[in-house]
């Protein structure tokens, strides 16, 4: 009999957890010939998330939890869940019911019968999300797709069911900077995409704010692409050629314009600062990797989880 592990990262999700447990268990109970575990990862919540998880794990021994010592971020929470999972198939889904549990049936069919290694949900719209966030996310994924030459299109989130082989491959990647969407794409394997419409959060608010999303986007960009360094080189070369041509032009025609000079100096110094910052990003990534710090620190686990 196959076992499905469902990994659920939770950060301040007290309002939705009971509903999530009810809906997801209902669907899992309907899938024939399987056993399952619900593996909640409390990512340093400040509300009553942990109390609810404790109660759930006492009530139902298929529910287990790991609780972090502080908020390490969703990527770290997903990693911890994958590491603790023991199922033949592992699902990652959000706690807020934005990932419809009913799709688990179709996902299980794809991985257990149709021969796929992974079945992932692709959100086809973003109704209910802010227009600015919508636009920025869309642009980000377009740029990433081009830069990384990896399949990371908009809407392809973390909601997926994977084979044990794929999960083990992801766990083999020991890097500190874990941008999951990039890691999924990096390990490869046959993925079936199933489309679903965006649903509003069942309760509570999104745990992302602009600065968190910006940091997440930068993480993705600098961990999975070295294209910005190539751009720097190209732009630098172009500026050098342009300045040589301008010097030659200045020798032929007499030009004096203080204003233009000041503009040029300001522009170039800004450009240099930007380039230094981009290079710095790669160096900090390397710096973080070299420290070999743990990706997360566990404070408490449910009794039935070693
Ligand atoms: N989450 C987490 N740690 C964080 C932020 C979010 O574990 O630092 C979890 C959150 O509890 C939820 C999932 O990641 O289960 C997705 O978060 P959210 O619904 O806030 O994101 P959105 O749907 O707005 O992209
Ligand atoms: Mg959500």
TrEMBL record:
It is a multi-pass membrane protein. Gene3D superfamilies: Spore Coat Polysaccharide Biosynthesis Protein SpsA, Chain A (3.90.550.10). One of its GO terms (molecular function) is glycosyltransferase activity. GO terms for cellular component: plasma membrane. Residues 5-170 form the Glycosyltransferase 2-like domain. Its main location: membrane. Keywords: Cell membrane, Glycosyltransferase, Membrane, Transferase, Transmembrane, Transmembrane helix. InterPro entries: Glyco_trans_2-like, Glycosyltransferase_2, Nucleotide-diphossugar_trans. The keyword Transmembrane helix applies. This is Glycosyltransferase family 2 protein. It comes from Holdemanella porci.
């Amino acid at each position: 009999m196959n076992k499905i592990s469902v990994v659920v990262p939770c950060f301040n999700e007290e309002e939705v957890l009971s509903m999530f447990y009810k809906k997801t268990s209902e669907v899992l109970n309907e899938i024939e010939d399987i056993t399952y575990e619900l593996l909640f990862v409390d990512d340093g919540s400040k509300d009553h998330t942990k109390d609810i998880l404790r109660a759930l794990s006492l009530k139902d021994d298929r529910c287990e939890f790991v609780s972090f010592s502080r908020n390490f971020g969703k990527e770290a929470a997903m990693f911890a869940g994958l590491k603790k999972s023991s199922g033949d198939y592992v699902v990652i889904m959000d706690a807020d019911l934005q990932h419809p549990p009913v799709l688990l049936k179709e996902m299980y069919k794809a991985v257990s019968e149709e021969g796929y290694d992974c079945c992932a949900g692709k959100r086809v719209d973003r109704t209910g999300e802010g227009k600015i966030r919508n636009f920025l996310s869309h642009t980000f994924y377009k740029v990433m797709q081009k830069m990384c030459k990896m399949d990371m299109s908009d809407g392809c989130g973390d909601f997926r069911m994977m084979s044990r082989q794929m999960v083990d491959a992801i766990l083999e990647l020991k890097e500190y900077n874990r941008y999951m969407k990039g890691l999924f794409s990096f390990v490869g394997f046959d993925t079936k995409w199933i489309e679903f419409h965006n649903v509003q959060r069942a309760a509570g608010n999104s745990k992302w704010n602009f600065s968190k999303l910006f940091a997440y986007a930068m993480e993705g960009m600098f961990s999975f692409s070295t294209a910005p360094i190539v751009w720097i080189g190209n732009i630098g070369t172009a500026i050098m050629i342009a300045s040589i041509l301008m010097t030659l032009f200045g020798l032929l025609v007499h030009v004096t314009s203080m204003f233009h000079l000041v503009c040029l100096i300001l522009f170039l110094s800004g450009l240099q600062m930007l380039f230094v910052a981009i290079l710095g990003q790669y160096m900090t990534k390397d710096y973080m990797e070299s420290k070999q710090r743990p990706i997360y620190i566990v404070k408490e686990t449910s009794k039935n989880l070693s």
